[in-house]
Design a protein that fits this description.
The protein has about 130 residues and is mainly alpha-helical. The protein folds into two domains: about 60 residues, no CATH class; about 40 residues. About 45% of the residues lie in helices and about 5% in strands. It is built from six helices and two strands; from the N terminus they run H-E-E-H-H-H-H-H. It has a two-stranded antiparallel ribbon with strand order 1-2. It is elongated and about 70 Å long. The chain starts with a helix and ends in an 11-residue tail after the last helix.
Amino acid sequence: MSVFGLVLFFLCIPEKWCRKKTVPRSLHTTSEERETISEIAKLLKFQCVRVPRVVQRSQGTGKIKDRQRNGRPRTSTTPALKKMLKQKIQRNSQKSIRKFDKEQDVSGRTMQNLVRDDLGLKSYKLAKG
C-alpha cells in the first residue's frame, strides 16, 4: 500500500476544516499525535484543499476510488464496438461512416462520435477531379 493509502487509512475528519486544524491519526489519540492538514499535504505532495475531500471520500465509501456517477450509462459505444470499428477502419479506410453504422445497426451520430472522439480520427471525403 502506498504512503497515500496508509495516511488516509489512519485519518478521520475533524468538525470544521481550516489550514491550521489538526487531523487525528485515529479515534483514540492524544493531542501530541495529531498532524496538521498542511503537514499531510506536504507528505503526500498535493494541495491542502484536497486532503479533507479525500478523507471524506474514504470515510464515506471506505475506498479512495471515485463514486459511481449519476445518469444513463453509455450502451451503444461499448469497448467491443470500438475495437471492431478500429479493426475495420484499418482494413478498409476508404469505406464511409454511413456504411459502418448500417452494418452495426448504430446511429450515424454515434458512429461519428466513436470515430472522432474515441478513436481520435478525422473523417473526410476525397475530392474527385
